[in-house]
Amino acid sequence: MLLLVNSPFCTPASPSYSLTYLYTFLKNNSKLEIDVFDANLLFHQLKFAEYGEYFQLLKNILAHKETFNDKKIKKSFFDTFEKKSNDYKQTSFRCYSENNKKIVLGQKPEYFAEVLNAIVAKNPKYVAFSVVYFSQAFYTQELILALKEKGIKTIVGGPGVTAPLKKYADYYLENEVLLLELLKNGEEESKNIEKKDRKEYNKQQEHIELDHSKLNVSRILDYSIWPLDRYFISEPVISLRTNSACYYQQCAFCTHHQSAKYLEYKLEDIRDSIIASGVRNVYFSDDMISTKRLLALAEVLKPLEVSWTCQLRPTRDLTSEILKTLHDSGLKMIMWGIESGSDRILNLMKKQTNTKDIAAILKSSKEAGIVNVAYILFGFPTETKEEFLETIKLLKDNSEQIDLVSTTIFGLQKESPMYETLEEYGISGIQVENRTVLDPKITYTVSSGLSHEEVKKLRRGYAKTINNISKFPASFNFFREQMLCFVGKN
Ligand code: SF4
């Protein structure tokens, strides 16, 4: 039996998309016995039961229309939510960090026996971990080592897989076809591949194209495999993707696509997944969706009467009319990749956006009834203090249109396109610091503009200004799925 496991730690707001897809793909293409287990959810139920109950009981409050119509009630709800969510965020982050430190020191993390026993009790031959976030790498590593001692084979895959995980797991596989092959062919073929050659083997295999004539590539996902009513949220939200990757793939800092082939998934599969799940809130986790595709998606979603959200680049083809059509189909919230209020920085980032269009699009979106979340990326290499302040100005000038601001500080990543031409970005003096569980940390110096420390200081200094622009509690940045449930009621 193959057990697909979601490891601690990540926020247990909704089930794993990648494991749901993997389950569906393997079920559609084999008669293998497959089960799923959300170890992350179990950990949080054991450690943070009180918070879980609070988030689930929000459904009773959100069921009353007065919560949204009465300003006083809404404020009181937001204040309590902010306090509870911040408590939870701080407590849980401290807990993750303490447990990760324990693992680095060779100690067992909390609830390890409970999580391990729950996995072993299912009697799996193979356990596959989809590691989406680096924060899952530590606990996954401990589980792999413990399962190994029990003679259970382990498999890892996903964007958060680190070099140590590749080393400790029996198999590191880059896609679902390789996993299917491994499971179907048994271990015989794989046994012949020496561990040291596995990476090479994966490389050779990674260009396998899905043979549509032989493989069932239906993406009608079965979310009923998860305990949907036990997540830390007022009502279930499911994640779906409409494409395999971003079609644009040009932003200099982006590591999301890594030149992945752009494939569009069947809209009928998306529709049928939503209908089968019975869930009213859909979080499209695509990094970007084209306008043409959004309109096609809207047509499919409108009759379903669901609330949905997605991430978009603010490009001028998103006209008022189009945004209205999208809102009518249930698009309640857009997370906009605004990044900067400086046109020079936007050009350097290769966003192909500009501040004039951004302001116009935010206005049209707001007028259409959509809630706008603004993603901001401070400290892009060579950004000056004046350019940092241009971003603050853009946020202030458009504050009426912006519901929530989400800021982050630039970090250089090897997988980003800009890593190939660092001199273009004034970057030199690269330093790579190896870490025990995570991949190496990269630091650098810039020829001009703000240093990392200066950006951090400026962001701290403007935190209050930024918070005052947001109409929603800042903690919704941590609970976007919950925010969707909330805005879906309006
Ligand atoms: S940042 Fe977004 S729009 Fe830009 S390449 Fe990455 S995924 Fe695509």
Please provide a written account of the structure.
With 490 residues, the chain is an alpha/beta fold. The protein folds into 2 domains: 2-50 and 107-205, 3-Layer(aba) Sandwich (Rossmann fold); 235-487, Alpha-Beta Horseshoe (pyruvate-formate lyase- activating enzyme), CATH 3.80.30.20. Helices cover 43% and strands 15% of the residues. The protein is built from 20 helices and 13 strands. It has helices at 17-29, 39-47, 49-62, 66-69, 71-104, 112-120, 137-149, 163-168, 176-185, 188-191, 198-205, 267-277, 291-301, 320-328, 343-349, 355-367, 385-397, 452-461, 463-469, 480-487; strands spanning 2-6, 34-38, 126-130, 153-157, 171-172, 237-240, 281-284, 307-312, 331-339, 371-378, 404-409, 427-433, 441-446. It has a 6-stranded parallel sheet with strand order 6-7-8-9-10-11, sandwiched between helices. Strands 2-1-3-4-5 form a 5-stranded parallel sheet, with helices on both faces. Helix 13 (291-301) runs parallel beside helix 14 (320-328) and helix 14 (320-328) packs across helix 16 (355-367). The longest helix is centred in the N-terminal third of the chain and has 34 residues, at 71-104. The protein is globular and about 60 Å long. It starts with a strand and ends with a helix. The relative contact order is 0.11. Bound molecules: iron/sulfur cluster.
